[in-house]
Fold this sequence. Notes:
By secondary structure, this protein is mostly beta strands. It has four domains: 1-74 and 311-354 and 465-497, baseplate structural protein gp8, domain 1; 78-196 and 302-310, baseplate structural protein gp8, domain 2, CATH 2.170.290; 203-287, no CATH class; 360-462, no CATH class. It contains five helices and 32 strands. The protein has helices spanning 7-19, 58-66, 168-174, 186-191, 305-308, and strands spanning 29-34, 68-74, 79-84, 120-122, 127-133, 153-155, 158-165, 179-181, 199-203, 211-216, 218-219, 231-237, 240-241, 253-256, 264-265, 271-272, 280-281, 290-294, 313-321, 333-341, 356-358, 361-369, 377-380, 386-393, 398-402, 427-429, 435-438, 443-447, 453-457, 460-461, 471-482, 488-496. Strands 22-25-24-23-26-27 form a six-stranded antiparallel β-barrel. A five-stranded antiparallel sheet has the order 21-2-1-20-31. It has a four-stranded antiparallel sheet with strand order 8-3-19-32, with helices on both faces. The chain is elongated and about 105 Å long.
Amino acid sequence: MTAIITEKFRQHNANQFSESFSESSASTYYLFLGKSMPFTSGTSGGTDTSPPTPADSVSSEFYLWDSMLGAKKITSSDISFALPRVNWANSTVFDMYDDTVSSSNTTASGSSSLYGSNFYFMTSNKDVYKVLDNNGGAAFSGSEPTSTSTSPFASGGYILKYMYTITASEAVKFITTDYIPVSTDTTVSAAAVDGKIESIKVTGGSGYTNGTYYAPVFGDGTSQGTSSGAIIRITVSGGSIQSFGLTAGTDTTIHAGGAAYTFGKVSLSNVFSDTGLSSSANIGSGTGGDVRVIISPKDGHGKNAVEELGGHFVIANTTITQAEGDDFTVANDFRQVGIVVDPTTFGTTTVASSTTARQTYVVKFSSATGTFDVDEQITQATTGAVGRVVEYDATRKLLYYQQERFSTYGTATTTQSFTAFSGTNTITGATTNAVGTPSSTGSDTVTLANGNTVTLTSGYANPELQPDSGNIVYIENRKPIQRVSDQTEDVKIIIEF
Length: 497
């Protein structure tokens, strides 16, 4: 038994994902940054210069929560359907749209899949065009196209179809070195005709009688096979059927596109000398010639650019601006980027709704000596708790920390047991020898550098999202990126369905 996952299924999944951001029972997505501690073979695996491949396992999801630094909500305006980026360049051979691309009918580039081929391109003006004919696999030769006509047009020896233009704001937010956003132009969509024949494939052959002929397109289109349906204008020169629509008046082209075709056939034995198909003609006894009708995508070229061009990719773009109101540290680096769906607010079963969320633990000292360094190990007398410093705010005597489930990172060296920091027993830095005594104040609200507040109970504050809640659906390990107070991270995640 053989089976495939079709392009339609991929597109359906991309559509469902996109809709889940704004539908009535919408999911809540957060982008998170994590892991301030280096990758090591003794803990998470890999190294900072060669990060490990993320694991898709139950245990790995728990680890991700341990090292999560902060999270920011992804909104519907932060996502876009996307395509692999194909740039226009003169003297480049592009593929062309063909409804029959397969392993037995490959494109000019050798692709056996239409959506894996370069049958569209983006210009420097951010206009996107579909190639309807590539002149038999020749290189584009001419100026960069600029037309936004809703009708196919000739340019550089090609027949092109204008699809849409990427706006300036879309370009900034969603264009990457490898991907571009895709959307449907409403004017182009309104002009599309379902089942209209807008391209053909010509095989020249030899031995035909020179002249101009008209052939009806048979099949299932409206008024198929008649003068009211699709009609192909066939030009024979030097005994050969000329190519499609590259030189006006001299090439085979489409006289009338018709409508509603899902298949069509042209018979060289049934041709006419007039457009009304009233005067039969004889094209001669040549051999090897053929005019193959290329069927337009459902609803016509330009009706739905996302589906027509293979937009089964989604770009999610989120910017982390400086400290994001104190919820993202600017004193440390990060090595993980991920997406979590429907996490809950700490200590509840209510899906979180805040724009940003701090994910570190916090302890406030009533007194402290010395300054704690980022990433250094901290321990607590009597309790035996172990953790690592994410950031230390000496002005407010606030220590932000994490407890990863590795020895000396969050668990005891000998027993591997986990103990939470608690009480007023002193906390000591292993490298700096800094010492802090946790506050015993029952409830204390501290105003942070950017105006946010943190509320502590008996000296401690929990993360704002409940660890291990929701579902982590994307994770990327990368080389460390240092955050600083005036820095903005522009994070683009491309998801392929």
